[in-house]
Amino acid sequence: MEEKMCLRCILTTKVPGVTLDRNGICNICHKFDNNKDIYDNYFKTENELEKLLEKCSDAQLKYDVLLMYSGGKDSTYVLFRLMDMGIRVLALTFDNGYIPQACFNNIKEVCENVGVDNIVVSVPKAKMDKVFVKNLREDGSVCSGCFRGLTARGVEVAVRERIPIIITGLSRGQIYDTKLHTLISNGITDPGEIDDYLLQFREVYHSVNDEVSQLIDDRALEDIEAFRKIQYVDFYRYSSATKKDIVNLLEERAPFWKKPDNVGGCSSNCMINDVGIHVHLKKKGFHNYAIPTSWEIRFGHVSREEALREISPLSKVDVQRVERIIQAINL
To answer: 73, 85, 147, 202: least surrounded by Cβ within 10 Å?
Structure first.
């Protein structure tokens, strides 16, 4: 069958389960329209986030929050907004072995500019490469193992520093794709109930003693009581900032910030990200950012035109760089 793309988002008929109506609109966009009240009820405002953070602030502690800070556009925007709220932040960066020096330069200058402490954590590169190989072979992606390593190290730091809240910079599309989709599809729509399930999933996530857990040395549950006291907050659940808002703020507040030359079109901080895109396209026939980005369009974070420019076809991936990394990790 000829591949066709939804005229409203960017999903194509190569994505499993996607169909188009006679007007060229996909069934997922129709599902969004039918469930819009559910999504509106889950996502909140920055004022509500400020109240939550103020309520949890403890003057006896050094930090209010641990921010998962990649140094990319989205998390840099989060850092600036938290500082505007007067929040005491420890910025945690996960070095997966493929973070370019230019990104570390961005991180250093941003953190020094706003007066925020930054800590870099990692997994030994040989072990992280094995995680990437496993993910690429099983999922055609590099992100899941990287996120497992980030969250494991993040919990360790939060427990050690007695930080009550961990904040992520996941976009609304990523929040929906990785957290909400399965729950809402199974009829769980109350925000409080969703949060309860996510807490349970998080504990199960770190309790699985599989190969990835052993490679990254996941000790997140070593102090189970401390783990259960930590709150997990997705900043973009509370912020409806658009991509244009993010770019404008960075241009105004961090004109020195530059996207590294050796990362792909869908990342502003990671060199191995294009390997996941390349492998996913070859294995499954569609871009691994297509689904979350389609939700970004529906939630109003990006326009369809912006998304089409970002979701590059295979020909725009630096295949030579990708192949060098594939050889280096023995995929």
So the answer is: 85
